[in-house]
Amino acid sequence: MLYLSISGFVLPGHLNNETGSKRWVVSQNSSLSVNGSTNVNKFSCVIPSYDQMDTLTLKESKMDKGVILSGNIGLAISSFDCHNSAMTKQLQKTLEEKQFPVLHIRFLSLNKLPELASKPESITGLVEIELAGVSKRFEVNYQISQDNQNVVHLLGLRDINFSDFNLTPPRKLGGMIKTKDQLSVNFRLNMKTMD
Amino acid sequence: MPPTMPISSNLIKMKKILLTGLIAGCILFVLSYGGLYLAVRFFPSLFTEYNNPLFNSDGSRDVLFYMHAFIISFALSWFWDRFKGLFKGAFIIRGLEFGFVYSIIALLPVMWISFSSLDITVVMVLSWFFYGLAQAIIAGVVFAKVNP
Questions:
Q1: Would you tell me which residues 116-145 of chain B have a C-beta closer than 8 angstroms to some C-beta of chain A?
Q2: Would you call A38 an interface residue with chain B, using a CB distance cutoff of 8 Å?
Q3: Is B60 on the interface with A (CB under 8 A)?
Q4: Residue A142, Cβ neighbours under 10 Å: how many?
Q5: How does the average pLDDT of chain A come out, rounded?
Q6: Do the interacting molecules here have an ipTM over 0.90?
């Protein structure tokens, strides 16, 4: 009875019945891109492959209908590649790479338990982004799916501003060339389920 | 003892240099930054390389940037007053020659050392050279007219 009340009734079938949680290991072919623009060009900077083995844990919250998604990924600012060395150096300088070398994304929650089907499902969730020593919470739009090899694909999209992190977008030639405050952050995590 | 100019004559000369420099500075300010604004607007691809940490990006030196038109005008005004006797002909010709002389003596070596030591493109250096040449010709024409 005790087992049933913990695992059978409380938890949905696709969560781990023993622990009530699911663990996903982030694989190396995960990536993050940042898209922005200036008044003279557009830029797209990517961290093409994630070189850590971090784990995200999915757990249904007992307090409300939401789902706790916990875990943290740390991305080295020096790994950004803007496909133009000057632009890459500029982004790293703007993000104060020397003082704050790592961008952290802390996963906090999802609005609902994902179905994990092959067809991408739209969900939202809360994350905390730490950049240049400033942490800020954002609601992120996700597309989540699972392929036939049981790899979970989590695509997150969110617009942020340099100013959210007390960063000043670069301006050149007395302000004649200005970088727009808004950046579009786009991350793709490919994750394997841990038993 | 070499003969010296009276103090009042020196003051008048200085006033002339400053006034001519100020007039040229105002004209260069409008033409240089107006031209730069239009160039950024209509030829944005020429300016993508400026997204580089080599160039100041926090706005802390904007005042210095916009003072450049006056700095170059006052410097050239003194140079003109000192050597204007060497430039002959109509005021347009005198202004043109003055601009070319300045560009060869001052701009070319500076552009040469800039390109050889900084991570900048040929297009960028050439644009600076022609920008400076245009500024010096305009200033020269103004000087030839105001302080012949």
A1: 119
A2: yes
A3: no
A4: 23
A5: 85
A6: no
